[in-house]
Amino acid sequence: MKKKIISIILTSAMVFSALCGCGSNQDQSTADGNAAGQASSDDKIVLSVSVMANEEEKKIFEDAIDRFETAHPDCTVDASYTSGSTWGEYCDKLLIQIGSGEAPDVIHVAIEGTQMLVKNNVLLPLDDMIAADPDGQAMLDDFVDATTDVFTIDGKLYELPTDCNDAVVHVNTKMFQDAGIEIPYDGWTWDEFRSIAKQLTTGEGDSKVYGFATSLAPSWLAGWFMSNGSDYINSDWTDSNLSDPKALETVEFLNNLVNEDKSMPVPETTTDATSLFAAGRVAMIATGIWPFPSYRANGFEDVDVVPMPTNSEDAKVGFGVGGVGIYSKSKHPQEAYELMKELTSVETGKAKCASGTCVPVRYSLSGEESYLSQCPNAKLFFDSLENGKALPSPMNYSDLERITNSMFSAVFSGASPAQEAVTNADTELKQSFANLK
């Protein structure tokens, strides 16, 4: 069973890592041990924690651990950091740790791994601990509802959110202004988006500038299904939803951008839409807040964000979220709970806002200047969470990715009509879910 689970999750995170602001653009590395945790550990409770973080995020977690150790002198923390990997690879490593009897007390993992860990009894439900904590309910009330709802499975809460990203449209403000196009800060429809993408597509060959670009991955394309009130899979992530007529409509819309309007290059898994956008090769992309520090570092300032265009009154905004939970067999669950609270505290959240890689997950941090200063319309990212829907992360994500990528490739290449490709993908995805039962 373990081998099957590892296979299922191995490819379960592509852009989710970026959406959650973790592990991107870093070399693979692990660092085990905390200097304070090594000293006088014989008479202290030693808590282990596993974290996915790049160097900047690692410093934020280390500062939180220092605060915890200062407030809890009877505890020391042994932290293991992983960077440069996908969430699937990280979960693979985590399973090996657990299997070898070296499970961490506190586990940092995004939604890609939550279902797998819960279904295998790796995470401890937090509800009773929060109910017994005088500050627990106030803490819970401060988290954006959508970010805790996604960590609630079968009525029980298993993680507290650490960071979040949701997809909105990044626009090249100079291109809009030069073309005399009003920037749609108040929202727009699919038809308006399509018209503007065509207007912003100029040139030929190597000098061509496209109106829009995206990568070929479920997480990059899911937002278009959600903006049409649909999704790849059903609401509880147990079956395909590709038989929904709105799903076919979404595939046809994206295909029109590629093959009829020529306003979007054929998406590939290797497409780096963010780099193309920053280089002025495309006028728009749809992603989270995480690229803005890189934009500034490279002197790219002609950028702002606007809402995703919609084609349905039931439109949602896709988001990814990371969190921390407690190992179900931890020998020190109460101390682990206190550490988890510090890793998700207001102070930790402020530091994450200042990093520019994620959106606040607490209502109380939505007005932080360090967050709002990331771009002129940064407030949109937080406001969009109120209408947020978690990017699909089922147990069989690897199959979801393979099947939907094949579907889009067949359509974009002209190998299959949209209806045929979607129907075939629906059948295959339904069988994948049936195989899990």
UniProtKB/TrEMBL annotation:
Gene3D superfamilies: Periplasmic binding protein-like II. The keyword Transport applies. InterPro entries: SBP (IPR006059). Residues 1-20 form the signal peptide. It comes from Waltera acetigignens. Pfam families: SBP_bac_1. GO terms for biological process: maltodextrin transmembrane transport; maltose transport. This is Sugar ABC transporter substrate-binding protein. GO terms for molecular function: maltose binding. Belongs to the bacterial solute-binding protein 1 family. GO terms for cellular component: ATP-binding cassette (ABC) transporter complex, substrate-binding subunit-containing. Keywords: Signal, Transport.
